[in-house]
Design goal:
The structure is a homodimer.
Chain A (H helix, E strand, L loop, with lengths): L2 H7 L1 H12 L11 H18 L3 E5 L6 E6 L7 E7 L19 E3 L2 E3 L3 H22 L5 E7 L9 H7 L1 H4 L3 E4 L11 E6 L1 E10 L5 E2 H4 L6 H10 L22 H8 L5 H8 L12 H6 L3 E10 L8 E2 L2 E10 L5 H14 L6 E6 L7 E2 L5 H14 L4 E5 L4 H10 L3 E3 L15 E3 H21 L1
Parallel strand pairs in A: 3-6, 3-7, 7-17, 8-16
Antiparallel strand pairs in A: 1-2, 2-6, 4-5, 5-18, 8-15, 9-13, 9-14, 10-12, 11-13
């Protein structure tokens, strides 16, 4: 039997299996879901064994576990390591979901569930691609290692140590990441860069409890006032980050890079309509594509303090807090940026309250790979066959920590080869994955491994 | 029987009744408690009938109801209207309460419950004082009207219309308010002024839902950024309100007023220790007492937006919002201040989001009464007999909307005669009321009515 026929014959089973996988609420950010993340890892490990991989193990990291598997035939063959993650983002605001996030439903050939697009659907494709090859021909064109993690959505805090301690196990000639996007169902892309990521929380503590604003308003510092003074100071009114030193090491795009980005489809007014905002907004001097892909940002992702119920409550609140996520550009050192922000917070701390900064682990530098690397050329060829159209060269504003980590620790680049799309509500309510992307992913992975056997 | 003996003999029953009253969760700010507010009003009406008042009625206002009752003997007697409120503040943060807020418990002669001190305990005293006089002597020394409301904690939005439409019913020579504070169990005061109150909410709307900050961070305005830009602009770093025109009409204190306030006990470092803040903080040029009692303030009482769960979520949030309460000084016009803040918000609105302001009803101007008014002289005499110490003249930073309203609409002043203390966690978790304050309140109201019969 040809692998193509095997995939076609087993399609219904694959979809049923994917739904089972999506039922596991493997939210890595919430400790109550720790066991669920482990269950998702176990599901992946079992599925790899079923696919015909004989060396499969779930390994501890000190945090959420990883799943490793390999199929090594000959020392002479090049080795490709396939990466993905089985953890998901949190689900709230829950009231905006049309169906429960961990009760997957299929509507119009799309499967709706948290994690469907990011990254369970994508992760599933190479497993089944390898299964199809092993069950039909009994072998693979290259040595394959699988490395799937359960902490991508929290910035992979334990992975730097894990990868450093397992260099031999993970050694390979190229990484292929099954976590990422294509431009549209009609237009593929080769993703050559990601922004880095670092996060921190600011906690402002005032009086020991909420106090009557009639009695203490004007007498003591209000923690929300002190917090918003810090938060508002992070940007100027044009949208530039106003933290001293923030932009110091940012690599400015070359004319060639700006040309590549300008070739990407982008209708600003259409995007504003789609997002339902009055207009796009951001750092002057850069296009919307540049701002979203290669310029660093500082976003306040959450803020809370005081009374949040119905109506009004006249208090000076006890505390207030905010969560900050920075996306980092090429050449920015996450530790240096973190230090600059910490200094900025201290400089903007008002009297009368205590300000604590919780610097989150899992800082990640930006990732950038030559667009003409043999791995990218191979991927581009396969994508052209899958979509009937040559891919554009692209940069993504999101963060895939493992790309920078593998480059720094193992000295290998990561080719990004995944089949999600921006409209699939990644990190948002009603996340979904197109079933046709499972087909493309499965065929694509067989073709890519065959192609890499030739070029590596 | 003397009224003193009647009160002593019925003390246990009064405490049991007060506990029943405190079990009703009459939170006026939350629509789910609308029926509870009404039930609290019904409890008060029933209790007034039981006390011997023969004309008692609960009256609709368009919002939460009011309870009116009277005992009118002779046209020649002066008429005193006694005021209080049977609604309470919300209860959150619930986790900081040692016992459920609406399951009152007595510990060390204090009753702990939401509303115990503000204002159910105080409201109960004059009802039972009148009962003691009617049951022992069959009459009262003055005509008495009771007027108890159920919307004080939300700024009494329907009361201006109600009072204007019921001028004859409410007509009187003096109002006595059973809502307020004494300085300490050892030191009484005569409260001659309150700050005014106005509230608004700011809602900033960005994209239609939370979006991935890797994909859209830097591309669109973040609603939290736009909100904190507005919020931080409300004050300068010294704590002055930076809204143009905010201080325009504020009456500066006279040397005599500053002397009266300086005579009030205040140890700034002790207060800071009690509140558990590093230091007091506020508008330069004014003492802490002045800042808390007679200077206007703008407090952000609540803020929220984006992800508030555990860990970090990389999003550009869909929306963010804040709640603002201003305490107003003498001569400030609430409508003018509200207009100035609305203009300020428009001036500090950044592009890329929609900003809506919800101006809350129930704006109240500040209240100020001559300290040597006959009503205050009478109250001072009674307080001196109750405490064994002459009262200090004081101003309170809180707001009792009805004082300004009665002055403007009925042309009568309100003497403040109540027995709560600042340490009783008004508006905070673990609110409590001292049982000895019930005794003082009961005796005090009998003595005050007798005294007012002489001076009015």
């Amino acid at each position: 039997m040809e692998w193509q026929d095997y995939l076609t014959q087993n399609r219904d089973r694959y979809i049923a299996e994917m739904l089972e996988f999506l039922k596991i609420p493997s939210i890595s950010a919430q400790s109550e879901h720790e066991t669920d993340v482990k269950m998702a890892g176990q599901w992946v490990a079992d599925r790899l064994k079923q696919a015909g991989l004989n060396h499969v193990e779930m390994m501890p990291t000190g945090g959420h576990p990883v799943v490793y598997a390999d199929w090594i035939q000959e020392d002479g063959l090049p080795t490709v390591l396939i990466y993905g993650h089985f953890d998901t983002q949190p689900v709230d605001p829950l009231d905006l979901w049309d169906s429960p996030p961990f009760e997957p439903v299929i509507k119009q050939d799309r499967v709706f569930a948290r994690g469907a697009s990011d990254d369970k659907g994508n992760l599933f494709s190479p497993i089944t691609a390898v299964e199809a090859m092993l069950k039909t021909s009994g072998k693979l064109p290259v040595n394959v290692k699988f490395f799937f993690e359960g902490q991508e959505e929290i910035g992979s805090p334990q992975l730097p140590d894990f990868v450093a301690q397992n260099k031999t196990l993970l050694a390979c000639d190229l990484v292929v990441s099954a976590d990422g996007l294509q431009l549209s169902p009609d237009q593929p892309k080769v993703e050559i860069g990601f922004r880095g990521n670092m996060a921190l929380e600011i906690r402002v503590t005032g009086p020991s409890k909420d106090y009557h604003s009639g009695l203490y308003g004007g007498v003591i510092q209000n923690p929300i006032h002190a917090l918003t003074h810090i938060l508002a100071s992070f940007h100027d009114t044009d949208g530039r980050v106003a933290v001293t030193g923030f932009y110091d090491d940012v690599r400015e795009p070359t004319p060639e890079e700006r040309q590549q980005l300008a070739a990407l489809p982008m209708d600003e007014s259409e995007l504003a309509t789609h997002l339902q905002v009055p207009e796009l907004f951001g750092e002057p001097g850069y296009t919307a594509v540049e701002r979203g892909a290669i310029r660093p940002t500082l976003e306040i992702c959450g803020v809370e303090g005081g009374y949040q119920g119905e109506g009004i409550k006249g208090i000076v609140p006890a505390k207030a807090q905010a969560k900050i996520v920075c996306r980092l550009a090429a050449d920015q050192d996450p530790e240096k940026v973190s230090a600059a922000i910490n200094t900025h917070i201290r400089n903007f701390t008002l009297p009368g309250v205590r300000v604590d900064v919780i610097n989150r682990d899992g800082k990640v530098g930006a990732y950038l790979m030559p667009h003409d690397h043999p791995g990218n050329i191979a991927a581009a060829g396969v994508l052209e066959r899958l979509y009937g159209k040559a891919p554009l060269i692209s940069r993504c504003g999101g963060t895939i920590p493992i790309c920078s980590l593998f480059l720094e620790t193992l000295g290998v680049y990561t080719v990004n080869f995944a089949f999600s799309y921006e409209d699939e509500n990644l990190h948002s309510p009603n996340e979904f994955f197109r079933l046709e992307s499972l087909d493309r992913g499965q065929r694509g992975y067989v073709m890519l491994l065959e192609e890499l056997a030739r070029v590596l």
